Amino acid sequence: MSIEIRHIDKHFGRFHALKDVNLDIASGELVALLGPSGCGKTTLLRIIAGLEQPDAGSIHFSGRDQTPVHVRERGVGFVFQHYALFKHMSVFENVAFGLRMKPRRERPSEAQIRARVMELLTLVQLDWVADRFPSQLSGGQRQRIALARALAVEPQVLLLDEPFGALDAKVRKDLRRWLRRLHDELHVTSIFVTHDQEEAMEVADRVVVINQGRIEQQGTPQEVWNHPASPFVYGFLGDVNLFRGRAQDGRMVLDDGHTLAGTQLAMPTSGEGAQQGEVLDALAYVRPHELDVARPAAQGAEAAAGGGRGILAQLDRAIVVGGMARLELIAQSAYKDEDNTQAGTLIEAQIPAQQFHDMELREGETLVVTPRRATVFLDYGAGI
Ligand SMILES: Nc1ncnc2c1ncn2[C@@H]1O[C@H](COP(=O)(O)OP(=O)(O)OP(=O)(O)O)[C@@H](O)[C@H]1O
Predict the structure, then answer these.
(1) What pLDDT sits at residue 272?
(2) Are 339 and 333 in contact (CB under 8 A)?
(3) Same domain (yes/no): 296, 225
(4) pTM given for the model
(5) Is 235 helix (H, G, I), strand (E, B) or coil?
(6) Which residue from 12, 19, 80 has its CB within 8 A of the most atoms of ligand 1, so it is best to mutate?
(7) Enclosing domain of residue 284
């Protein structure tokens, strides 16, 4: 069952929650709606389900307009963040509930219900808790039961709203892998709402990034991660260092005079918005692992003097966890006499722990930080 979302608009009073949202989801796809709190993810999910009416636009399932179709008739299964299991019913009865509620004509026999429930409990690897009550289960187990219950009525579409949001980090990780495997077995078209970028990247076939009621970007996790379409997407997908400067003809100079000469720059060139020769304000985005860290002496005299390719910065704090070392550095001015906006900026770098130990880096020493790769966004006047 494919889903087509056409020109969906939604206000709550004067608040514009969804702004002309268009999205196509292929049959059997697992799509993550990713965005910050309040961006409209849940509202979109509720509109797809039929729990909320849009002001304008329509939802289609495999081309069929669902506007006049009641939520009960849409064939949608839900799993929400807060376990919605019935406390007074056993796990078995919770999963059987949807089947027992079917109209008499469609209702399976008792033997069929028993077989189907046990099949689903085996699928979520919890057949051994069939006789327990929800209060006797862990949070992760309850969410797996909630999923089994949603699947019992063989939904055409599965909607998951932060299903693992209330669970601790380790259980979340286990469950997202488990959900991915389960989806690969069942191929039910699924939409998964999360504000956790790691979760979206790990679980989904396709990630749809939403900001303030609009889709900012959609693509495979790889596409969105490697080619973020806007500063918002770049910043939302992970830790990032931001350097202000000016760009001209595919080159960039930071405000403090550093040239980013040796840096691989992903930036719009003339023809993609920038005019030949035009000087534009620009922001260079650099991920912590895209920064090289060295001692000034190793960089040569030019860099040590501050006029070269790297950025002089003092190592303020080093946090070594597992195989990685996270370094917090304070940028120093390249031209100390001039007004310099970047001096004092916090720079986060990530290097292998082994390198950190081999270099014998010490907090308080001055280092040279060089971006290997930067993604540059230009300011065409709209502001960035
Ligand atoms: N019934 C409602 N009445 C008024 N405002 C609402 C209603 N439902 C949602 N909103 C507002 O619409 C915006 C989008 O809400 P929504 O729940 O879709 O966000 P979300 O992206 O799912 O956020 P979260 O991750 O925090 O759940 C929010 O600003 C919210 O306050």
Answers:
(1) 58
(2) no
(3) no
(4) 0.82
(5) helix
(6) 12
(7) 239-378
